[in-house]
Design brief:
Layout: E1 15-18, H1 24-34, E2 38-43, E3 58-59, E4 62-63, H2 64-68, E5 73-77, H3 83-93, E6 98-101, H4 115-121, E7 126-131, H5 146-152, H6 173-198, E8 206-211, H7 212-218, H8 221-230, E9 247-251, E10 257-261, H9 265-274, H10 289-294, H11 296-307, H12 312-319, E11 326-328, H13 332-337, H14 339-342, E12 349-354, E13 358-363, E14 368-369, E15 372-373, H15 387-395, H16 399-407
Parallel strand pairs: 1-2, 1-6, 2-5, 6-7, 7-8
Antiparallel strand pairs: 3-4, 9-10, 10-11, 12-13, 14-15
InterPro entries: CoA-transferase_III_domain, CoA-Trfase_fam_III, CoA-Trfase_III_dom3_sf, CoA-Trfase_III_dom_1_sf
Region (Disordered): 361-385
Family: Belongs to the CoA-transferase III family.
């Protein structure tokens, strides 16, 4: 029966065949699942998605890493390196709206699972390829890893303390950003297909090329644009900002850190008053952001001396109600316990019952539709948990066929 579409499940009725593993692809497909799509995760027999073993910590047989990006999916365990397994993928793709894959470019074409082959059987298929360096060009066969793309794309070069070495971000920002770019492209392709159908035209799919390096360069944004305009190599600024001053972390008297900044001249005046130093707002060296940036080596020590005189809690109370950019530099525990996050009514932390691990909690959907976040209707799947269910439901595989496939080690 058709799945009812609701405001917080706008993709109900959309089916996604997910051949991805690790992070960028699974993160994208998880959000599609959060929005109501039926996501079928295809995994290899004998281990599945390699992140199942990326621990500790583990919850039962799977890593928490895997559990964090694979909710709202069904797991089918099959070997499409075998002809019979590749045929199952082809048959499944005919029943799907979207296919996601993140294999080295050209690998799936050898099995007849590339866009040209599958779209010939399903013209409406939206086929999204996620790779390290794109589907064409001299680096297309390089494996894609977040830290490599971040390094090659310049992100590591601008991250870290001014007098220190490059620093990797604490989460895989390039992977996650690529997943989000892929998500937005898939949604646009679904909209284009639906629009064509509403006009009585053939709703055709397309081939989406999302890759880590393109994402990294695109998200360098104003930093890359500044270099292209001036030719000056950007610096590392730690928690600071190349174009604003003050805009960074400051030490408090209790050895905590407070992010504090001013985004414009009016805010700088507010900040000076809250700091108890209104004279700084009229100091000729600091009258405009341009001057404050030019004279940051004089300004920052003055503000640091003021902030270091009082503990963090005092400053948070003093800054309450202002429109300034400010906040504590929290640990992960403090961030998850903060009122906007920990409040059960927010729904940002979601808990589901996993068949082996019990109660599993993780950050949930980041956006709301009409005040509601997407629902967690399925916990992260166990390896091959839904193989028989999916093949029976979508391909009408009966017991004899499933038994034969298992004997041939095509499915597990």
């Amino acid at each position: 029966p058709p799945v009812p579409i609701s405001a917080h499940r706008p993709l109900a009725g959309i089916r996604v065949l997910d051949l991805t593993r690790v992070l960028a692809g699974p993160y994208c497909s998880m959000i599609l699942g959060d929005m109501g799509a039926d996501v079928i995760k295809v995994e290899r027999p004998g281990g599945g998605d390699e992140t199942r073993q990326w621990g500790p910590p583990f919850a039962a047989e799977d890593s928490v890493y895997f559990l964090s990006v694979n909710r709202n999916k069904r797991s089918v365990c099959l070997d499409f390196g075998q002809p019979a397994g590749a045929d199952l993928v082809r048959r499944l793709s005919r029943r799907c709206d979207v296919l996601l894959e993140n294999f080295v470019p050209g690998k799936l074409a050898k099995r007849g699972l590339d866009f040209a082959s599958l779209s010939a059987q399903n013209p409406g298929l939206i086929y999204c390829s996620i790779s390290g360096f794109g589907q064409s060009g001299p680096w297309r066969r390089r494996a894609g890893y977040d830290v490599a793309a971040a390094a090659i794309g310049g992100f590591l070069g601008i991250t870290g303390e001014p007098d220190g070495p490059p620093v990797r971000a604490g989460v895989a920002v390039t992977d996650l950003s690529t997943g989000l770019y892929a998500l937005s492209a898939i949604l646009a392709a679904l909209y284009r297909r639906r629009t064509a159908e509403s006009l009585g035209e053939v709703g055709r799919g397309c081939w989406i090329d999302a890759n880590l390096l393109d994402t990294q360069v695109a998200t360098m944004s104003h930093v890359a644009a500044s270099f292209l305009h001036t030719g000056q190599e950007p610096s590392r600024w730690g928690t600071g900002h190349a174009n604003l001053a003050p805009y960074q972390a400051f030490d408090t008297s209790d050895r905590r850190q407070l992010i504090l900044g001013a985004g414009n001249d009016r805010q700088f005046g507010v900040l000076c008053r809250r700091l108890g130093a209104p004279h700084l707002a009229t100091d000729p060296r600091f009258l405009s952001n341009r001057l404050r940036v030019a004279n940051r080596t004089s300004l920052i020590p003055l503000i640091q001396a003021l902030v270091r005189a009082r503990p963090l809690a005092d400053w948070l109370a003093t800054l309450e109600g202002s429109d300034l950019p400010y906040g504590p530099v929290n640990t992960v525990a403090e961030a998850l316990a903060s009122p906007p996050v920990a409040d059960p009514a927010s729904g940002l932390l979601v808990t589901c019952e996993h068949p082996a691990a019990g109660r599993v909690t993780a950050p949930g959907p980041a956006v709301r539709f009409d005040g509601r976040r997407g629902e967690v209707t399925r916990p992260p799947p166990r390896l091959g948990e839904h193989t028989d269910e999916v093949l029976g439901e979508l391909l009408d595989c009966g017991c004899e066929e499933l038994l034969e496939l298992r004997r041939g080690k095509v499915i597990a």
